[in-house]
Specification:
Layout lengths: L8 H8 L6 H21 L3 H16 L7 H8 L2 H9 L37 E9 L10 E5 L20 E5 L5 E7 L4 E2 L5 H8 L5 E2 L2 E7 L6 E7 L18 E2 L2 E2 L5 E4 L2 E2 L16 H6 L4
Parallel strand pairs: 1-11, 1-12, 8-9
Antiparallel strand pairs: 1-4, 2-3, 2-7, 5-6, 7-8, 10-11
Bound molecules: benzoic acid (BEZ) and fe (iii) ion (FE).
């Protein structure tokens, strides 16, 4: 295997993986090499550009720490996260669709009773949220665990403040015997994804804006149903058609209805997919934490 040229090198590299014991790993690496080489040939990649790419990815890794995952942000802004969600959560008609997980979920959020104020002092206008967790046939799902999180009126999550004593705008609730839940929070606003790293450089270099339309995050788990990771988006948001991370789906639009006494009310039902009802390869790995710890074998 000598004198490889720009046309013969791809097969030579793929051949080197011939003895990979895991068929899945072999398939993934084979296709990665094939598409990466095709990409380099198609754009006629120069050595300077190759080096710029290496430096960009190096900076992306260096920006990561226990709280910040710049590689996921890169995947989000390149549409790879949403593509993976879409492929892995193909649900029957009528189920609430899944969307990107995002970097601001925190394990171990405070538990609240229905009716509680999860804002916990966060800035913003009051919003009363209510709805029902149910199955496709309308059956109420009692005891579903709802993990909820959102940004405040300035567009920041509690974890983005350095000196905050208590969690704000996040909490865990359980649906009642009739499947219903309700809580008080602040009205969601549009906010920009973090742009102080290489992903921000990429957005600026490509004249893209960093905004996400206003939304409220949910992760809902219930026995016998696929875990749902989603958000409800404000139907009147100007960024619905240009979400920086491509997460908007028509079925996830909700109405923040202004109330006579001030504030808003949002009513939104969360419809879960029974486990095993339809192909859903990602159902066992619905949270980002699980995806991180998984290995290809
Ligand atoms: C979020 O909605 O929290 C989010 C999702 C993807 C990237 C950045 C933020
Ligand atoms: Fe968010």
């Amino acid at each position: 295997m000598r004198n490889l040229n720009q046309h013969t090198i791809t097969e030579a590299v793929i051949e080197r993986f011939a003895d990979t014991p895991s068929p899945r790993l072999k398939r993934i690496l084979t296709h990665l090499v094939k598409h990466m080489h095709d990409f380099a040939r198609e754009v006629e990649l120069t050595e300077d550009e190759w080096m710029q790419g290496i430096e960009f990815l190096t900076r992306t890794g260096q920006k990561c720490d226990g709280n910040r995952q710049e590689f996921i942000l890169l995947s989000d802004t390149l549409g790879l996260s949403m593509l993976t969600v879409a492929m892995n959560h193909d649900k029957p008609e009528g189920c609430t669709e899944a969307t990107v997980f995002g970097p601001f979920h925190v394990d171990g959020a405070p538990h609240y009773e229905n009716g509680a104020d999860i804002a916990n002092g966060a800035k913003g206008e009051l919003c009363e949220v209510s709805g029902m967790v149910r199955g496709i046939d309308g059956e109420p799902i009692a005891g579903a665990v709802l993990d909820v999180w959102q940004a405040d009126a300035t567009g920041h999550y509690d974890v983005q403040y350095e000196a905050l004593a208590q969690p704000q705008n996040r909490g865990v609730l359980v649906s009642g015997p009739d499947g219903r839940f309700n809580f008080r929070t602040v009205a969601a606003v549009a906010y920009p994804i973090p742009v102080d790293g290489p992903v921000g450089d990429m957005l600026r270099a490509t004249a893209r804006h960093p905004w996400r339309p206003a939304h409220l995050h949910f992760m809902v788990r219930a026995e016998g149903y696929e875990t749902l990771v989603t958000h409800v988006f404000r139907r009147d948001d100007p960024y619905l058609d240009s979400d920086a991370v491509f997460g908007v789906r028509e079925s996830l639009l909700g109405d923040w209805v202004p109330q006579a006494g001030g504030g808003y009310a949002l009513e939104f039902d969360l419809v879960l997919n029974p486990k095993g009802s339809k192909r859903s390869v990602g159902s066992a790995h619905a949270t980002r934490g699980l995806m991180r710890s998984e290995s290809i074998s």
